[in-house]
Design goal:
Blueprint lengths: L1 H22 L2 H25 L5 E2 L2 E2 H35 L2 H5 L5 H7 L8 H16 L6 H27 L1 H4 L3 H13 L11 H13 L4 H11 L4 H28 L6
Antiparallel strand pairs: 1-2
Helix pairs in contact: 2-3, 3-6, 3-7, 3-11, 7-9, 7-11, 7-12
Amino acid sequence: MTSFLRYGRMLGSMARFTLAREMAFRGNFLVKVSVEVIWLGIMLAFYQTVFGKTSHVAEWTKPQYFFFIGCFFAINGLIETLFLESCNDFAELVRTGDLDFLLLKPVDEQFLISLRKIDWGTAPNVFMGGGVMVLALVSMSWRFDVPAFLLFVLTFACGLLIAYSFMLVLTSFSVWLVRNQSLMEMWWLFSSLARYPREVFNSKAWTEQLGRAFTYLVPILLVSNVPARVMVKAIEPGLVAYTVFATIATFWAGRRFFRHALRSYRSASS
């Protein structure tokens, strides 16, 4: 418990430091927030146009689909706020040898490296995504369901950890490749897959197999699909249980791979 509080205080300190640094350039902060607002607006306008021509998209009604969009936007906002900037910066730490100074600190390396820079410019995405979800629930006259809500919170956290684990693995390759721009672009590929319901892959036999692969082998489709599904469609106990299992497995594998990468790191002094 003491260790947990210690890491909580460190996270708070890093968050305050990065916020103060962000506020030193308020114009840049406002531009970043404006870009995210425009991006969400474009997404909503596009799907509003789509649902003007049909009542269902991949077996999802309009309110259900908009809840899905809000769920994705909130999860992606948390990933970008908490982890993305730090993970992008990891390659530069390896190249310059500044990683040595972080490894010398009496703190868990994964915690310090992946959470040292909080990007406050994308933090509003979490609230905007939450707002879209609330509006979607209101439009479908959703009645509060305690089991569904609790499972939503659980699977939302699982989706966040699965996405983080994939990002951590991609980041770890910087130890060997030094430059990781191409690898981090793969993260955008993964996040693009998480943006769509898994039912979109059911149109043909080969795409259905692809959807299963990205659900059960590389479980990136679980990130947004399962939380949204348990909240506005149906609770599938087997899929929820698999999501929890996949979260534990991917987080364990990501941490093991990250620590293996650090063992392969040759410091600037060696």
